[in-house]
């Protein structure tokens, strides 16, 4: 549904985004995670067509954003970090105004009512936006993003500044929207992403440093152990050799390292010691193991290592 290919954005000497590629499938909720200044907003602004890239392409449902900007943009609903609300308008008037601005071609009254129902603000329809709580204002932001039923939703830090109850409500809303939309959500808060997203893409200094399913990255489930490996060689050979080890349940490549090496996470049945088998398997295919760590790394530990630049704390996010 969304395809980003070799995307780069330079601001003078600063490489805000450095040759990143990824795709997001239909109905997937992708979390874009990274510390302050990592390049999340720049990437999202390019995907939405708000700023142009230095090089690379972004295709939304088959439409390239620079070649077919009108068609591509019509497929995206965007919720910026600070939603562009006209706070002197009532919720309904604002949505009518945005409906016209976006030139949505659906039955106006019915569509606005449907969107308000979806984000649960029907009861606030006639209230002036500036008098609403921050949580409700965020829902109005979601409602404008949903106008026109775009298949893709881009949400920039959607729960920033909300209280814990509002955060839970907005997470529920995102999950429910994920059933019908492809969602890309950015956050600098790890718990935010792991609570709502199917897949996590970690960005640091403009580069993707990890791309994996949330449950593959987080600590192992009961009955399984994990082994983190850095191995040099062709990923397909390494993965198939490890998969052949009887006690191995799953193996995933989780990040690229320098040169021809990569990090793999091997999940295996408890009470088996697969280290020796992995060592032998890698020796057989001539792929040197550069690092091997037994035990379960938490998502936080992994994230800190991936983005190791010291300006992050995993509980609150930015320092
Ligand atoms: N308009 C601009 N001019 C110059 N440099 C910029 C501009 N916008 C962003 N940058 C720089 O590009 C890098 C990436 O910024 P970006 O805002 O994309 O990061 P981010 O991950 O979204 O961070 P945050 O969570 O703080 O918004 C940073 O070094 C930032 O200073």
Automatic annotation (TrEMBL):
Residues annotated as domain ABC transporter: 2-230
Xref: Pfam families: ABC_tran
The keyword Nucleotide-binding belongs to this UniProt entry's keyword annotation: yes
Annotated keywords: ATP-binding, Nucleotide-binding, Transport
Domain of life: Bacteria
Molecular function, one GO term: ATP binding
Signal peptide per UniProt: none
InterPro entries noted in UniProt: AAA+_ATPase, ABC_transporter-like_ATP-bd, P-loop_NTPase
Keyword Cell cycle: no
Family statement drawn from the similarity comment of this UniProt entry: Belongs to the ABC transporter superfamily.
Name of the protein in question: ATP-binding cassette domain-containing protein
Species of origin: Ruminococcus intestinalis
């Amino acid at each position: 549904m969304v395809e980003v290919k070799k995307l780069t954005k330079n601001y003078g000497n600063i490489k805000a985004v450095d040759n990143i590629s990824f795709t997001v499938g239909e109905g997937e909720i992708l979390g874009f995670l990274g510390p302050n200044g990592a390049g999340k907003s720049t990437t999202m602004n390019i995907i939405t067509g708000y700023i142009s890239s230095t090089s690379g392409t972004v295709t939304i449902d088959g439409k390239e954003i620079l070649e077919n900007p009108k068609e591509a943009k019509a497929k995206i609903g965007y919720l910026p970090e600070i939603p562009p609300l006209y706070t002197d308008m009532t919720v309904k008037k604002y949505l009518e105004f945005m409906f016209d601005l976006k030139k949505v071609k659906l039955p106006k009254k019915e569509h606005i009512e449907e969107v308000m129902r979806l984000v649960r603000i029907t009861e606030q329809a006639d209230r002036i936006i500036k008098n609403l709580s921050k949580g409700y204002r965020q829902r109005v932001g979601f409602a404008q993003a949903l106008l026109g039923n775009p298949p893709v939703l881009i949400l920039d830090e959607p729960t920033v500044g909300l209280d814990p109850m509002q955060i839970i409500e907005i997470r529920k809303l995102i999950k429910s929207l994920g059933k019908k939309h492809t969602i890309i959500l950015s956050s600098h808060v790890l718990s935010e992403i792991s609570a709502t997203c199917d897949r996590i893409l970690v960005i640091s200094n403009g580069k993707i440093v990890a791309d994996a399913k949330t449950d593959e990255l987080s600590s192992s489930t009961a009955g399984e152990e994990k082994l983190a490996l850095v191995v040099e060689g062709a990923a397909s050979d390494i993965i198939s050799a490890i998969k052949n080890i009887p006690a191995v349940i799953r193996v995933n490549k989780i990040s690229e390292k320098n040169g021809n090496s990569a990090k793999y996470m091997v999940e295996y049945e408890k009470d088996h010691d697969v280290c020796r088998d992995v060592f032998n398997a890698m020796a057989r295919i001539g792929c040197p193991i550069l690092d091997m760590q037994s035990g379960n790394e938490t998502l936080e530990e992994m994230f800190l290592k991936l983005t190791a630049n010291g300006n992050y704390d995993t509980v609150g996010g930015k320092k």
